[in-house]
Design a protein that fits this description.
With 577 residues, this protein is an alpha/beta fold. The chain is 66% helix and 10% strand. Among the domains are: 2-184 and 242-314, ABC transporter type 1, transmembrane domain (ABC transporter transmembrane region fold, Up-down Bundle); 415-489, P-loop containing nucleotide triphosphate hydrolases (Rossmann fold), CATH 3.40.50. A six-stranded mixed sheet has the order 6-9-10-3-11-12, sandwiched between helices. A hairpin with a 2-residue loop joins strand 11 (538-543) and strand 12 (546-551). The longest helix is centred in the middle third of the chain and has 53 residues, at 214-266. It binds adenosine-5'-triphosphate and magnesium ion. Magnesium ion binds next to helix 11.
Length: 577
């Protein structure tokens, strides 16, 4: 019920259009209701009384009714679609907006395909329920009601007789309605799973091929496909059982009418025309009942989808901003971690009691074995996640006290995995700062050592990247990501393995650019290749989520700890090469 009300809230802005649509629906349905009345006049007045004037009137009437009904039919469908489509774009827009605000942890937990299914399938299912099924519900509801009135008017005792079958029909509808709703939910879920497998295999085509796992993927897909089939078949089974059951009960009703009504005509209580009209109403009444059950089933299915859509809309927003969050002023770049403990699940901390304070403009290197928590530290700074304990301060201001936008504006990241959008090279770099001029953008590309390869591409800066464009090498992608960060010009810069995919030569050039970029900014450099961080003002060595060493390159070498060890290994292996 609350679900209905919630959907109603979206319809609210279009209520006048909806009312007009409903008026059209009622008039279109009224056309149907009038037909048996014509038959009654035909039988009683034309066939029995040989009234020729009535015959002409009937002929004219039928044409007029159908013309008017056509117009109303158009109005009903057009206006209903108008309302339905509007509500859908409103909801879909809202879901998309919501997705932009959901925290990273939502994306860690949900599969891409499932999320996509919310926005596409589920919202569309909701629309179908609202347009087609609401039209049907109103039309058939009105026809049902009108038919009943006409029947009562014609012969109320006969009507009572007919409706003895009604409770049985209702029971069937209730019983199957529940089952249909449940299987409707299963279908949507199974469809979401299919989309998800599909999405995964498409995006990992290279991995699948290299491991020769096509057969494995096919069987995985077949499993989901079968689950979907079974869910659909369960639903179909209920639908298919429901209809004949109801029709059988209806047939019993018709028999009763023929038997009892026939007696009434014989005894002269009603005319033959009235009985025929009554019969037409009664037979036709099974249609609206049938369609009502069907559209009610569809609406149930859609409500399950609607529930999922609203579940997404109700998820807690992005890491909550405090109600009185201030705007982080232009920072100098002092960064302080105070007793920070963090885990993606609160139970298993990844970072344990991290403490450090970085002076503005310092270059800090984070090193340590894979999985030590380096990237995790990097994602806490722009507050992709909230710490479980402790606090992170920038210029003495807790990152929790400021608005996310103002914080993230001042933190630039070149991530470990570069993501480029479908679009031109130009647009991809411009993403760093949307109001940058062409000159500034090329300047940034040059600084990132990307300009030369970009102008070598077929269309230069206007070359399309992604699905419908060229693919770049890993190193080229990194350089575009660096250009993007340079253009953004943040006070605090995080380079997570930013040059790991470059050859030594380009790395040296990009490193030069980065060295220039890092001047005057607080920079975090994460690198496995220790040669690139020798110059850092400070090196933090992480192991198992704790800072185990802290100092400059020379100090740490002298300390002969983990860093010295790692460095020796790399140094030796590069010498033997
Ligand atoms: N989104 C996530 N959800 C849950 N756990 C995660 C997530 N990202 C990382 N982890 C876990 O956190 C730990 C630290 O990961 P992190 O990415 O910070 O390591 P890293 O030091 O950057 O390693 P690498 O050098 O390989 O990039 C790992 O054990 C990893 O399994
Ligand atoms: Mg990492």
């Amino acid at each position: 019920m609350t679900l209905y009300l919630r959907i109603l809230k979206y319809i609210q802005p279009y209520k006048y259009t909806l009312v007009m649509a409903l008026v059209c629906t009622v008039f279109a349905a009224a056309g149907n209701l009038y037909i048996p009345w014509i038959i009654k006049d035909m039988v009683d007045q034309v066939l029995a009384d040989k009234n020729e004037g009535m015959l002409n009137l009937i002929a004219f009437g039928i044409i007029a009714i159908f013309a008017a009904r056509g117009l109303f039919f158009f109005g009903q469908n057009y206006l209903m679609s108008y309302v339905g489509q509007h509500v859908v774009i409103d909801i879909r827009g809202e879901v998309f907006k919501k997705l932009q605000r959901l925290p990273m942890s939502f994306y860690d937990k949900n599969k891409t395909g499932t999320i996509m299914s919310y926005v596409t399938n589920d919202v569309s299912a909701l629309q179908a329920a609202m347009v087609e099924n609401t039209i049907e519900l109103v039309t058939e509801g009105f026809i049902l009601l009108g038919s009943i009135c006409a029947m009562v008017y014609l012969d109320w005792k006969l009507t009572l007789f007919t409706f003895c079958t009604f409770p049985i029909v209702l029971w069937f509808m209730r019983f199957f309605g529940k089952k249909i709703r449940r299987s409707g939910g299963e279908i949507q879920e199974a469809t979401a799973d299919i989309t998800s497998v599909l999405q995964e295999t498409i995006s990992s085509a290279r991995v699948i091929k290299s491991f020769v796992r096509e057969g494995y993927e096919v069987s995985r897909f077949e499993k989901e496909n079968m689950t979907n089939f079974n869910a659909n078949m369960r639903n179909a089974k209920y639908m298919a059982t429901l209809t004949p059951c109801i029709e059988f009960v209806a047939a019993i009703g018709v028999t009763l009418i023929l038997w009892y009504g026939g007696h009434n005509v014989i005894s002269g209580y009603i005319t033959a025309g009235s009985l025929i009209a009554f019969l037409v109403y009664a037979v036709n009444i099974s249609n609206p009942i049938k369609r009502l059950t069907r559209s009610m089933g569809n609406i149930q299915k859609a409500l399950a989808a609607g529930q999922r859509v609203f579940d997404v809309l109700d998820l807690p927003e992005e890491i909550e901003e405090l109600p009185n969050a201030q705007i982080l002023p232009q920072v100098n770049g002092n960064v302080e971690f105070k007793a920070v403990t963090f885990g993606y699940n609160a139970e298993s901390p990844i970072l344990k009691n991290i403490n450090f304070s970085i002076n503005p403009g310092q270059v800090v290197a984070l090193v340590g074995p894979s999985g030590a928590g380096k990237s995790t530290i990097a994602s806490l700074l722009p507050r992709f996640y909230d710490v479980n304990q402790g606090e992170i301060n920038i210029d003495g201001i807790n990152v929790r006290d400021v608005t996310l936008d103002s914080l993230r504006e001042q933190v630039g990241i070149v991530p470990q995995e570069t993501m480029l959008f479908n679009g031109t090279v130009y647009d991809n770099i411009l993403y760093g700062r949307l109001d940058a001029t062409k000159e500034e953008l090329e300047e940034a590309a040059k600084a990132a050592n990307a300009h030369d390869f970009i102008i070598g591409l077929a269309d230069g800066y206007m070359t399309m990247l992604g699905d419908r464009g060229v693919n770049l090498s890993g190193g080229q992608r990194q350089r575009i990501a660096i250009a993007r960060a340079i253009l953004k010009n943040p006070r605090i810069l995080i380079l997570d393995e930013a040059t790991s995919a470059l050859d030594t030569e380009s790395e040296r050039v990009v490193q030069d650019a980065l060295d220039r970029l890092m001047v005057g900014r607080t920079s975090f450099v994460i690198a496995h290749r220790l040669s690139t961080i020798k110059q850092a003002d400070r090196i933090l060595v992480l192991e198992n989520g704790s800072v185990v060493e802290d100092g400059t390159h020379d100090q740490l070498l002298a300390a002969e700890g983990l860093y010295a060890n790692l460095y020796q290994i790399q140094y030796r292996s590069s010498e033997t090469k």
